[in-house]
């Protein structure tokens, strides 16, 4: 089998498993910096054996006395998991371990929230006697008597946690510890027709070699992260049939490593994207759209197991959801 096809299939399998891949060289771009050009937030959905959800009472002046999930901004040099553990300990008194990411919400690179389903592994519930600037107290909430909430935006996170515990609809997902200097999206972009499936690949040229890889596009300030993928499609397929839509199905995995301050604060979102008909019954052709750049090429997936995995994931919507901030 051609070595290029083998390499592509190996990387495809890694992406479908939620693993990470090295990002291209972005030396020509300024690295994003936490608290300056990017803001990452973690939040925890934690249930006790009776199904009650952990809530904390806010100590901040603007929302004093109201209730919210344990949540807060990431600090410099932290991993996403480390930030989650710190926030839960500071605000609720518990030590915890993440079970899986539940949802990613974004408002462009300036506001990204990672919601986790997590479990208590130690510590004790924070009582009013331990009130501080982080929180006034914590308590378990059965969601029946109303609480004065800081914001109702956490209700969808709690519901996602309830749903995942009952019937996990995507594989367990955790951030992969790989560095990235910018916020970007790696596209596993597919076109399928009549039981055939193609992937869009990009040529990545360095001083020593040239190889094909999955295209990576950088998020622009002021735009949704998902916009980057749409922009890439427009750039490489300007002759695309207008009956085609770009659909971002969800996240296969994400990569972050903030240990080198100011140089690796970025995140790479590995997403599955497809070109689909924008109208019912619209004729989209039996082969992928023509490309207008030699940097890109279509590669047909002939490995039946990999092709079946992709189509099954799409049918079952088995992806970590990414949504715009409500």
Automatic annotation (TrEMBL):
* Any one GO MF annotation of this record: metal ion binding
Q: Required cofactors, per record?
A: Mn(2+); Mg(2+)
Q: Which EC class is this protein assigned?
A: hydrolase
Coiled-coil ranges (or none): none
Q: Which Pfam families does the UniProt entry name for this protein?
A: NUDIX (PF00293)
Q: Has UniProt tagged this entry with the keyword Ion transport?
A: no
Ranges where the Nudix hydrolase domain occurs: 37-162
Catalysed conversion reaction: 8-oxo-GDP + H2O = 8-oxo-GMP + phosphate + H(+); 8-oxo-dADP + H2O = 8-oxo-dAMP + phosphate + H(+); 2-oxo-dADP + H2O = 2-oxo-dAMP + phosphate + H(+); 8-oxo-dGDP + H2O = 8-oxo-dGMP + phosphate + H(+)
Any idea which UniProt keywords this protein has?
Hydrolase, Magnesium, Manganese, Metal-binding
PROSITE patterns per UniProt: NUDIX, NUDIX_BOX
The entry assigns this protein to a family as follows: Belongs to the Nudix hydrolase family.
Protein name per Swiss-Prot or TrEMBL: 8-oxo-dGDP phosphatase NUDT18
To which species is this protein native? Answer: Bagarius yarrelli (Goonch)
Lineage start: Eukaryota, Metazoa, Chordata, Craniata, Vertebrata
